[in-house]
Amino acid sequence: MTANSSIDTAQRYQLVLFRDDLRTVDHPALLAASEAGPVVALYILDEQSPGIRPLGSAARWWLHHALISLRASLQELGIPLILRRGNSLHIIEEFTGHGNVAAVHWNRRYGQAERALDTLIKDHVRAAGIHAQSHAGALLHEPWELLTQAGTGYKVFTPFHNALRSTEIRQPRPAPQPQSPPQLELPGSDALAKWELLPSSPDWSGGLADAWTPGEPAAQERLEQVLDDIAQHYADRHDRPDLDGTSALSPALRWGHLSPHQVWKELSALASSTGHGAEGALALRRQVAWRDFCWHLYYHHPQLPTENLRSEFDDFDWAWPDDSPRAAHYTRCWQRGRTGFGLVDAGMAQLWQTGWMHNRVRMVTASLLVKNLGLHWKVGEQWFWDTLVDADLACNTANWQWVAGSGADAAPYFRVFNPQLQAKKFDPSGAYVARYAPLAAEPVVDLKESRQAALDSYHHMKSGQRPHSPGTGS
Ligand SMILES: Cc1cc2nc3c(=O)[nH]c(=O)nc-3n(C[C@H](O)[C@H](O)[C@H](O)COP(=O)(O)OP(=O)(O)OC[C@H]3O[C@@H](n4cnc5c(N)ncnc54)[C@H](O)[C@@H]3O)c2cc1C
């Protein structure tokens, strides 16, 4: 006999925890729950459980609007959404304590702290005699399923991608059928406005609102546009920040408005249905695999956000903003888009205005920070975390470590992007720079000298001598 056996089953509901999967289509936890009985959805803003990184400012803006959108989509399905802020375990204990919860479902998360928390939740729910079920919804494959022959996670992208392509990717699942909302008194919901996720003084979010509509319907619409046009030209245009040449689906994937399975399936269908555009569709699909790769890397190397994956870089003399006035000045110039290098300044302005930056420009801005300005990659990573609407712990830290040279499958440290040559090649008419950084600033560093200083530091590190990085001088 379980704790809940005396409660009429008609009064009990399936509780679905929503986290980074704010959608109704291809949501395995939601679908399984709805097949078992009436569903109640719960989103917890958890800023208390140990080890969970608080959301950045742009992400908080996105979340506010995404929850409004999710509530509307769930309402159409007859599913109430309850919002709560606090420690996830305590809140779930409160829900299960009322005796109305028949089962708790969620899609799995892969960060170390999130996994630890979900294990605590599962243990608690099961100890209360309630069914607890986790589902696979966020990645194309579970990180423990796609392994090298040695049984370890992949550290290099190309073999990972080859392995991924040769396995079957499951088909996306439909949204649940509409149902009658549960007929019982539910625990109260917080008012979203009370969470104060939106910036107020000042409200800097106008550019974000102009650029984006958070939520599942807008993500599906964008996917349609991508399939109709962008994917077909992706191979030729993806490196051009002056063109609308990439999918801009990263926030949709970050927040789970789309599952990677939906995107993968559509791109695969496009690639096989048409000769024209197949190359682009496959090139774009390959990028989607990068997202999975970053998450597999993070799962197998939980220190990815905090430590260099190549420990030799622990001896590198990275500078921090409070090390010297010069390092503080460099940090400010970079964050504000006043480095004097048009492509970098345009990228930083695009980021500030819209919460997003083109991938090529992310690489160039990151390279300038880490190599020419000599600052620690975490200085840039934290700024991106605060300002990107697609800020994603695995993708952000893996890519920063890739640029810094300290990552598993990293670009070699001595590959220093020259922002002027990159601008000539990828923004040939100067339209991107003119749009975001029309006023040129004085260069903060001499590109040639700072590049040489970076390479010297690298060689010192390799030879075990005391290095000197370009950002440390006063
Ligand atoms: C320093 C740095 C930091 C980054 N931080 C993030 C981040 O916080 N969140 C994030 O989603 N991406 C991050 N990226 C990866 C990449 O820049 C963005 O995913 C891409 O620019 C998003 O634009 P898009 O959707 O048009 O991409 P597309 O080119 O259209 O690619 C389609 C999808 O593939 C995935 N993808 C593409 N490139 C990468 C990549 N290099 N690594 C992982 N996934 C990729 C994204 O989900 C993207 O939406 C970072 C890259 C760099 C160099």
Automatic annotation (TrEMBL):
Gene3D superfamilies: 1.25.40.80, DNA Cyclobutane Dipyrimidine Photolyase, subunit A, domain 3, HUPs
Organism annotation: Glutamicibacter mishrai
Residues that bind FAD: 234, 246-250, 390-392
Family, similarity comment: Belongs to the DNA photolyase family.
Co-factor remark: Binds 1 FAD per subunit.
GO MF entry, a single one: deoxyribodipyrimidine photo-lyase activity
Keywords, sorted A to Z: Chromophore, FAD, Flavoprotein, Lyase
Domain Photolyase/cryptochrome alpha/beta: from-to ranges: 12-140
Cofactors (names): FAD
Protein name per the record: Deoxyribodipyrimidine photo-lyase
PANTHER family named among the record's database cross-references: CRYPTOCHROME, CRYPTOCHROME CIRCADIAN CLOCK 5 ISOFORM X1
One matching Pfam family: FAD_binding_7
GO biological process, one term: response to light stimulus
UniProt entry tagged with the keyword Lyase: yes
PROSITE patterns recorded: PHR_CRY_ALPHA_BETA
Electron transfer via tryptophanyl radical (site feature) positions: 318, 377, 400
